[in-house]
Write a structure and sequence with these properties.
Blueprint (H helix, E strand, L loop, with lengths): L4 E3 L1 H7 L6 E2 L2 E5 L9 E3 L4 E2 H14 L4 E4 L2
Parallel strand pairs: 1-6
Antiparallel strand pairs: 2-5, 3-4, 3-6
């Protein structure tokens, strides 16, 4: 499987910097094979961006997603 694109531009416009730190991260997974309700992926606990992105990539791979959008 090809690498999953991680889109952070919207987050960067809203916050003025790249995603960093510890918080309750939210992602949208873009996939042509998953229903709309399954696209939103909130993290259940506060964690670092790196750890949250790792989890989002794991789920995105399972759902055959092409892109992960980091939500502001």
């Amino acid at each position: 499987m090809a690498d999953i694109e991680v889109y952070t531009e919207r987050y960067e416009r809203e916050h003025g910097h790249k995603p960093v730190g510890r918080r309750f991260w939210n992602f949208t997974l873009v996939s042509s094979t998953v229903t709309t309700k399954d696209h939103y992926l909130p993290m259940a606990s506060a964690m670092t961006y790196e750890k949250a992105l790792e989890e989002a990539k794991r789920v995105a791979t399972l759902r055959r997603s092409e892109r992960i959008i980091v939500e502001p």
